[in-house]
Amino acid sequence: MQYTIIAVLALAAAAVAGPAESCPTQDEKTPTTFVPDNQDCGVFYICDRNGQAVKYDCPTGLGYNPNTKICEQNGCKRS
Fold first, then answer.
1. End-to-end C-alpha distance for the chain, whole angstroms
2. What phi, psi does 36 have (nearest 5°)?
3. How far apart are CA 16 and CA 62, in angstroms?
4. Is the pTM of this model over 0.70?
5. What's the domain range around 56?
6. Tell me: the pLDDT tens digits for 48-72?
7. What is the DSSP pairing of strand 70-72 with strand 63-65?
8. Which of 7, 30, 63, 73 has CB atoms 3.0–4.6 Å from 41's, for a disulfide?
């Protein structure tokens, strides 16, 4: 019973984490698209040419700032 509850909670948490918006389809003329995570500001995504979000983690202690598109100390607090 205990393992079932843990598994359900893990699946529920995984279901809500992810890019804050969907990726557009990319081509050679499209600039790189950066997308913040919808829950963890220490995570961001770079959209590939197929419109798939590729996950990246900021270094420990840094948060992704969507305005500057970099991980920085003055980004948000990492969860």
1. 28
2. -75, 160
3. 22
4. no
5. 19-79
6. 888 889 999 999 989 999 999 999 9
7. antiparallel
8. 63
